[in-house]
Specification:
Blueprint: E1 5-8, E2 15-18, H1 29-34, E3 39-43, E4 46-49, E5 54-57, H2 60-63, H3 72-84, H4 96-108, E6 115-119, H5 122-139, E7 147-151, H6 160-165, E8 182-185, H7 208-217, E9 222-227, H8 243-254, E10 257-261, H9 275-279, E11 285-288, E12 300-304, H10 306-315, H11 333-348, H12 351-367, E13 375-381, E14 384-389, H13 397-408, E15 411-412, E16 414-416, E17 419-422, H14 430-444
Parallel strand pairs: 5-15, 7-8, 7-9, 9-10, 10-11
Antiparallel strand pairs: 1-2, 3-4, 4-5, 6-12, 11-12, 13-14, 14-17, 16-17
Helix pairs in contact: 3-11, 4-11, 5-10, 7-8, 12-14
Bound molecules: pyridoxal-5'-phosphate.
C-alpha cells in the first residue's frame, strides 16, 4: 500500500500525521486514506473537519450522541470521577456509582427489567444476553434450550455470539460457521411497505416464522429470540403493525425468552426511553449501549427481568458466584459517571419528549425527498429514518459515494449499503432538520 499522510491545519502550527498505522474498523481503508474525512471538534449539533469547516451531525455520531456534542456536564462528571476513583476491580468490589446508575437505568426500563449488568459495548451486551438466557434455562432445569432465533438483516454486533445472530452476509461470510444452533426468521422489509411512514400494514404474519422453528426444532431446544425492535444498522426497518406483539405471544406460549436489542433504539430514538415502550411490547431481556453515556464513554448494559435474575441467583450455592461472566471494565467508574450525567440531561431537558415532538417535522422533511429519482425507499419512526437509493454498480457503492459527497457538502451521516441513516441528536431544532434536508436534496440530485 502507498504511504499516506495528512497535514493538519486546524491549529496554529500545522503538523503532519501518518495514516499508515491505524487500521480503521468497518472502513475501506485504502479509500479513506486516499481522501481522509477527518473530524477534529464537536459541539451541539455540529462537527468541524480538519480544514475548520462545519458539518451538521445527522446521525448523532453513530446513534450515540443523543444529547448533542460537547456536554460539559458529562466531561466534568468524568473528570471528577477519575480524580476521585479511577479504577476499582469490578469483581468482589463495588463503587457507589455502579449501583446508582443501575437504579437509574432500571427506572427507565419497562416492566420488571430491573436487574442491570454493565459491559463496554453493544456487542458485549448481546453476547452477555445470550449467556444470561442459557444460564436461566440451566437454572430452571431446561438446559436443553441452547438454540437461538434471530432474523435476516439483523445486526447484533461483532463478537462471535452477535455475529452468529447476525443476518448481514458481509459480517458473517469470512468468519466460518460461528455458533451452531441459530435459526434466522425472515426480515420484514416488504415491497408493500416501501415509502410507508411508521409501522407498515403488511408483514405481521412473518412472526409466524418463530412458530415454524418451534415446529421444526422443538420449543424445548430454543433459549431465546433476539430482535432489534427497529432493525437499525441494516437501514431502519420499522416493524410491521402487530409483528412484535405476535412474536411476544409465541415466545410466551413456548417458554422462549424475548430479547430486544435496543443498542440504537434506546434512550429516546423512538420517542420513549426504549422502543419496547413505543411499541407496547416488553421483552425479558434488553441490551443497550450508545446513548447510555451519550457516546462520551464506552459502555453497554443488559437489563434483565427480576424473574430471570432471581432464578439464576437462587440456583447457586450460598457464597458461590452465580454468573461466571464479566469484564475488567464492567461498571468502570468513568462511564458510570458519564451515564449518570447523561441520564440527568435526558431528564432535565425532557429530551425523549422533545424527540417525540420533533418527529413529525423530521419525517415530513425526509418524505419531502420522495420525488428525487435516486430515492428507492424511505422508512422512518421517531427521530430515526433511512433513505435508500437505487443501487449503481456494486451493492453499497452508491451509498458510499453519497456519504462522501454529503460530508464534503457539510453533513455527517452513517450509510449502510445503499441506505443513508438519519438519527439526529434529540436536541435538534427545526432549523437543523431544514439544513439536513436541504443538504440531502442538493446532494441526492448529484449522485
Ligand atoms: C442493534 C445493535 N446491537 C449491537 C451493536 C453493537 O454495538 P457496539 O458497536 O457498541 O459493539 C449495534 C451497533 O450499532 C447495534 O446497532
Amino acid at each position: 500500500m502507498d504511504h499516506a499522510e495528512l497535514t493538519l491545519r486546524d491549529q496554529p502550527e500545522p503538523r503532519q500525521i501518518s495514516l499508515d498505522e491505524y487500521w480503521m474498523p468497518f472502513t475501506p481503508n485504502r479509500d479513506f486514506k486516499a481522501d481522509p474525512k477527518m473530524v477534529v471538534r464537536a459541539e451541539g449539533m455540529y462537527y468541524w473537519n480538519d480544514r475548520g469547516e462545519k458539518l451538521v451531525d445527522a446521525s448523532s455520531g453513530m446513534f450515540c450522541v443523543n444529547a448533542g456534542h460537547g456536554r460539559k456536564e458529562i466531561a466534568d462528571a468524568v473528570h471528577r470521577q477519575l480524580s476521585e476513583l479511577d479504577f476499582i476491580a469490578p469483581f468482589l468490589r463495588g463503587h457507589p456509582k455502579q449501583f446508582e446508575l443501575a437504579q437509574r437505568v432500571a427506572e427507565l426500563t419497562p416492566g420488571d427489567l430491573n436487574r442491570i449488568f454493565f459491559v463496554n459495548s453493544g456487542s458485549e451486551a448481546v453476547d452477555t444476553a445470550m449467556k444470561v438466557a442459557l444460564a436461566y434455562h440451566q437454572a430452571r432445569g431446561q438446559g436443553g434450550r441452547n438454540m437461538f432465533v434471530s432474523r435476516e438483516r439483523a445486526y447484533h454486533g461483532v463478537n462471535f455470539g452477535g455475529v452468529a445472530l447476525s443476518g448481514i452476509v458481509n459480517n458473517r461470510r469470512k468468519f466460518g460457521p460461528t455458533l451452531p444452533g441459530i435459526a434466522h426468521m425472515r426480515h420484514t422489509h416488504l415491497k408493500e411497505n416501501y415509502f410507508v411512514r411508521g409501522e407498515g400494514a403488511h408483514g405481521a404474519e412473518l412472526a409466524e416464522d418463530l412458530q415454524r422453528f418451534v415446529a421444526l426444532y422443538g420449543a424445548e431446544n430454543i433459549a431465546a429470540c433476539f430482535i432489534e425492535p427497529i432493525a437499525g444498522s441494516t437501514g431502519v426497518l420499522v416493524p410491521p403493525k402487530g409483528y412484535l406483539k405476535r412474536v411476544r405471544e409465541i415466545c410466551d406460549q413456548h417458554g422462549i425468552l424475548l430479547v430486544f436489542d435496543e443498542v440504537i433504539c434506546g434512550f429516546g430514538r423512538t420517542g420513549k426511553a426504549f422502543a419496547a415502550q413505543s411499541f407496547g411490547v416488553t421483552p425479558d431481556i434488553m441490551t443497550m449501549a450508545k446513548g447510555l453515556t451519550n457516546g462520551a464513554q464506552p459502555m453497554g448494559a443488559v437489563a434483565i427481568s427480576e424473574r430471570i435474575h432471581d432464578t439464576i441467583v437462587a440456583a447457586a450455592q450460598d457464597g458461590a458466584i452465580e454468573f461466571f461472566h464479566g469484564y475488567t471494565y464492567s461498571g468502570h467508574p468513568a462511564p458510570c459517571a458519564a451515564g449518570l450525567a447523561t441520564l440527568d440531561i435526558y431528564r432535565k431537558e425532557g429530551l425523549f419528549e422533545r424527540g417525540a415532538a420533533l418527529s413529525p417535522y423530521f419525517l415530513d422533511g425526509i418524505w419531502s425527498l420522495k420525488d428525487l429519482p435516486a430515492v428507492a425507499d424511505l422508512r422512518g419512526y421517531g427521530l430515526f429514518a433511512a433513505i435508500e437509493v437505487h443501487p449503481a454498480g456494486a451493492p453499497g457503492a452508491r451509498g458510499h459515494l453519497l456519504q462522501k459527497k454529503l460530508f464534503d457538502n457539510g453533513l455527517h451521516l452513517k450509510t449502510t449499503g445503499d441506505s443513508a441513516i438519519l438519527a439526529p441528536p434529540l436536541i435538534a431544532e427545526r432549523s437543523h432538520i431544514d439544513m439536513i434536508v436541504d443538504c440531502l436534496r442538493k446532494t441526492l440530485a448529484t449522485i
